């Protein structure tokens, strides 16, 4: 059963979470240590993010700069397979437009197909650091909807090379992202919703939202989606704040608002431990209200830190 099917048929709110691949040179054991405390809550799936390459400048001994293009968090395919076979849990790797040609994506999809990893989350991806606007690769995709269409083409046995002999269809089920407070680049919510419906009409079977701290934003977002004919499950995404830096950085990076009631409590915090406790309490409050409204699942953005998510899950599931 695909993630989408589970979301459509569940009689209770399910639990899922997202992980970053380890930094290059680090051990996969770090990932296992993040997963192990959360297994008891029977996650419906574990998402694995994908990060495109970055341009980094290194200072050489003579003072000149050397430009290098590196990928700081490789291993998305191998990590997805390792988690799937170690825990026997559905994994949902992310595939992004950024940094990929259509041929790159086709090869990546073939790898996942051979591994029988058939649930995917498709995203455009952010512009690289230092670049204000997203620029696709030559012969790449500028928009997620085009990525969705490429996957659907492969599900129909249509590959980029029309001369292939007896090409076999894939069987991917895909989700896409939604933005309760609109995507930062969208001129308005109506336009953002229009693009979201295009992704669903192209074949996306469920939506996972960007993180938010005000449940009313999510409820209004779902209402607007339903009013324009988006009928697929919409999973709310939550990130518990955990550090003093989060208070300023998270709203900037993810273009989301912190409700005044929540912010007043965060203002009182003197250290990261206090922020983490306030973040846990707020996420539990969010989760209880979301569950009372019958959401199909709650998706947690862990960023590899699971102790706070464990406390939240223990209170909710």
Short structural summary:
The protein is 40% helix and 17% strand.
Question: What descriptive keywords fit this protein?
Answer:
317 residues, 17% strand, single chain, TIM Barrel, 8-stranded parallel beta barrel, globular, alpha/beta
Task: Give an overview in words.
It is a single chain. The chain has 317 residues and is α/β, with parallel strands linked by helices. The protein has one domain: TIM Barrel (Alpha-Beta Barrel). It contains eleven helices and ten strands. Strands 1-2-5-6-7-8-9-10 form an eight-stranded parallel β-barrel, surrounded by five helices. Helix 4 links the parallel strand 5 and strand 6. Helix 5 packs parallel to helix 6 and helix 10 runs parallel beside helix 11. The longest helix is centred in the C-terminal third of the chain and has 21 residues. The radius of gyration is 20 Å and the shape is globular. It starts with a helix and ends with a helix.
| Overall form | globular
Q: What is the radius of gyration computed over CA atoms, rounded to a whole number of angstroms?
A: 20 Å
Judging by the overall fold, what is the CATH architecture? Alpha-Beta Barrel
Q: Would you tell me which CATH topology applies?
A: TIM Barrel
């Amino acid at each position: 059963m695909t993630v989408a099917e589970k979301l459509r048929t569940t009689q209770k709110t399910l639990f899922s979470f997202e992980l970053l691949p380890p930094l290059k040179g680090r051990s996969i054991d770090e990932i296992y240590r993040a997963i192990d405390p959360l297994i008891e809550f029977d996650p419906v799936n574990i998402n694995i993010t994908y990060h495109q390459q970055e341009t980094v400048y290194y200072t050489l001994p003579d003072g000149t700069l050397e430009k290098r293009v590196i990928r700081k968090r490789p291993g998305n395919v191998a990590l997805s397979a390792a988690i799937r076979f170690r825990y026997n849990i559905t994994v949902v790797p992310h595939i992004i437009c950024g940094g990929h040609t259509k041929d790159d994506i086709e090869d990546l999809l073939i790898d996942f197909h051979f591994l029988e990893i058939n649930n995917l989350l498709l995203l455009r991806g952010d512009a690289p650091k230092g670049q204000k606007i997203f620029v696709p690769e030559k012969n790449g995709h500028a928009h997620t909807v085009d990525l969705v269409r490429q996957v659907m083409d492969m599900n129909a046995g249509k590959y980029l090379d029309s001369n292939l002999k007896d090409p076999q269809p894939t069987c991917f089920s895909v989700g896409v992202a939604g933005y309760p407070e609109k995507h930062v680049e969208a001129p308005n919510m109506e336009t953002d919703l229009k693009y979201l419906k295009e992704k669903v009409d192209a074949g996306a079977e469920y939506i996972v939202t960007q993180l938010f701290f005000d449940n009313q934003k999510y409820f209004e977002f779902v209402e607007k989606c339903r009013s324009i004919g988006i009928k697929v499950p919409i999973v709310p995404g939550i990130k518990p704040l955990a550090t003093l830096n989060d208070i300023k950085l998270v709203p900037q990076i993810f273009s989301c608002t912190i409700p005044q009631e929540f912010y007043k409590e965060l203002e009182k915090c003197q250290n990261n431990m206090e922020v983490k406790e306030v973040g846990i309490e707020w996420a539990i409050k969010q989760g209880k209200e979301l569950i009372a409204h019958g959401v199909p699942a709650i998706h947690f953005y862990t960023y590899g830190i699971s102790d706070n998510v464990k406390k939240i899950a223990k209170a909710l599931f």
